[in-house]
Specification:
Blueprint: H1 7-29, H2 36-69, H3 75-106, H4 136-157, H5 163-191, H6 197-205, H7 208-211, H8 213-227, H9 229-234, H10 236-256, H11 265-288, H12 294-305, H13 307-325, H14 333-369
């Protein structure tokens, strides 16, 4: 399964999952805290999810552009695209959903009223996500982003014959949908009452109708990389430095001026998440130049290929189960360190089993049944 893998993208995927897992490690030491350092680490976990969004958009946008290159833009091609995506994402999701339901029953807890909405990914379509299977909020955003833009794009392409015009249509459809997202966000800004970061996160950041653009920024990135490759390669270091400065200055601004969702909602609705997406996009050119080397390359490959499984199991399956079995709060630090090691071992072990014996066979079946894109997805 290493064929056609792009090492730099594997590095970004590994960084994203490490940010998520490390942010969850903090809950072993502090279930609730006001510590700026701990809150910053948890914010990096949220940034890891945004990196996943941009990465997904970059890869899926690349696949759609390849469809355009090969003139595979009829609805049979669209259905084939969807089938490949569904075989990539849905089996793991539904398996972990069933396991989460089983764990809830095992621990004698009540199933959420929205449980059946998890099947069509509607649990957070226009309302806050429940605490059950919390990772699923981002998967809903990705699934609907794969449905909506490609459907509109393929409909639009039925009226276009010239190849160059089709690529322009790809850009126009992406920009129009991002623009519509801002109109929807404006409605949220006008009507929402937000009293904390948690309110903003649950009511806005984790809701599908407000976050589809998180993936579509990756479509813009692949378009620019495709149309202006020399420019992207020439200034890759400048883009990387700009990303680091923009990310740092944005968070210094937030820290020094106490910019909170309850006091500066407009910034968090219209600017903050797009800034993070831009930071993600700007680092891509530098990472695309990386080459796989030795044991580091093998480690990156391991983390990257297991990243989806790790994302699904580390919090709801491993961490929450440990919290139900063990009370962390009053334990001495050396015991918590032992629990941290156990958490990491269980996360890596379970994700490896899930990947090797469930995810990988399904991916092989997918690639055997449906023609394979040249871009790893």
């Amino acid at each position: 399964m290493q064929t056609n893998r792009i090492f730099g993208l594997d590095v970004l995927r590994a960084i994203a999952i490490l940010l998520v897992v490390v942010s969850h490690c903090t809950y072993i030491f502090y279930e609730t805290t006001e510590s700026p350092i701990i809150m910053a680490i948890r914010s990096l976990g949220a940034f890891g999810v945004d990196l996943f969004f941009v990465l997904s958009g970059y890869l899926i946008g690349g696949i759609l552009l390849k469809h355009i290159d090969q003139n595979r833009t009829n609805f049979n091609d669209l259905f084939r695209f969807w089938k490949r995506r569904w075989l990539r994402t849905l089996p793991n999701y539904y398996l972990i959903l069933i396991i989460n339901i089983g764990l809830l029953i095992l621990f004698s807890q009540k199933l959420p009223d929205s449980i059946f909405l998890y099947i069509p990914f509607l649990q957070n379509f226009s309302q806050p996500h429940s605490d059950f299977f919390n990772e699923a909020w981002s998967l809903s955003i990705e699934e609907y982003s794969y449905l909506i833009l490609p459907l509109i794009l393929f409909c639009a392409l039925q009226w276009v014959r010239r190849h160059h015009s089709k690529i322009i249509v790809f850009l126009i459809v992406t920009l129009v949908l991002i623009g519509i997202q801002y109109l929807i966000k404006a409605r949220f800004y006008s009507n929402a009452e937000v009293h904390s970061y948690q309110d903003w996160s649950s009511m806005f950041r984790k809701v599908v109708v407000y976050r589809l653009d998180a993936v579509y920024y990756g479509f813009i990135l692949i378009y620019v990389a495709r149309m202006y490759p020399y420019f992207i390669r020439k200034y890759d270091k400048l883009f990387l430095i700009t990303a680091l400065l923009l990310f740092t200055s944005t968070h210094l601004y937030i820290a020094f001026f106490s910019v909170l969702p309850q006091t500066h909602l407009g910034f968090y609705v219209f600017a903050y998440l797009p800034i993070l997406a831009l930071c993600c996009a700007l680092v891509f050119p530098a990472f695309l130049k990386l080459k796989k080397q030795g044991w580091f390359g093998s480690l990156i490959y391991f983390l990257s290929t297991r990243s989806y499984a790790m994302y699904l199991v580390n919090y709801s399956i491993v961490l929450l189960s440990l919290q139900k079995l063990i009370s962390f709060e009053a334990m001495p630090i050396y015991i918590k360190l032992g629990i941290l090691v156990l958490f990491l071992i269980l996360t890596l072990s379970l994700s490896n089993v899930l990947y090797r014996y469930f995810e990988l066979p399904i991916l092989k079946f997918r690639d055997k049944t449906y023609s394979k894109s040249n871009i790893t997805s």
